[in-house]
Amino acid sequence: MTAPAEARTTRTTAPDDDRREVPQRRRSFAAVLAILAVLLLVSVTAGMAIGSVHVPPGEVWGIVTHALGIGFPEPGRSRARETIVLDVRAPRVLLGAVTGAGLAVVGTAMQALVRNPLAEPYLLGVSSGASLGAVMVIVFGVSLFGPVSLPAAAFVGALLTLLLVYTTSRAGGRITSTRLVLSGVAIASVLTAVTDLLLLTGNRGNEAREVLAWTLGGLGGVRWSTLWLPGAALLLGIVVLLVQARSLNLLLAGEEAATTMGLDVARFRARMFVLLSLVTGVLVAAAGPIGFVGLMLPHIMRLAVGGDHRRLLPAAALAGAVFLVWADIAARTVASPMEIPVGVLTALCGGPFFLWLLRRDARRGTDRGTA
To answer: What is the reported pTM?
Structure first.
């Protein structure tokens, strides 16, 4: 008679434990988001304050609030400092935040779509197409659109690459994720070869250095007039992915389970690949191909908030923004007055992380095999 009583006790207490755990998870998630938001605010302030000309944080926000029309001009404020903060550093810091957030969000979704922890935003070769477009502008001296010719060509290259990958991977009216990824890898190799050929046969001697600087990624030279496009791409990507967060969660359980739950896996993946590639193309056109942000931050945030994409996506966005803003600060100051491409610093952080990830997955595979 005691066993049924114990079973009844277990059945009645377990739901109570689950109900208590839900508010705890919500509070911990809210705490993580609050911490990341504060870190982002501190990072943006530091990005506008630190540089060859140091501007105190209080003065930075005085300049910003006055520009927004909610502050008062301070007597004796340097006009040069206003120009540095508003026209040079502010758009650069915002581009870093937008690009870091976008790459982290795209990387999070890519890892779920292909169910591979090593997936990242450049999986389908979009960065190779963007690089080829930028190289053609540099080599042939095209200036049809003035100062935005290079990012415009990079975006067109990324878009055409996406269409080519999408077309070549389609067979029998269907697109599988395996064919899509393999097509992306193959086309990226061809486009990289074409890029190298253009550099080798170019007539101008400084082309290789200019191309190298762009392909390593950088946030310099951004203007307010060009900042709206990556911002819009980030907003579109986050909104759509949050709406589709449940479907991304279903994929974590496997294709068969997702299909059983009513998800058309092939169609969903195809649509998401198109969306993510377009967002990546816009970000690459604005800042160059900055690597490892979309690989590292999703894994780091999973340790903090878990694998539920309703929590993971906003946390990864904030963390990616914080990371890339500080990477750009280091790129501007470590070797001052020379500026290091920000992609170099993200690679120095991402390379060891990538090796650790490979080693961790290898240990897990060994443990499963021995078990």
So the answer is: 0.86
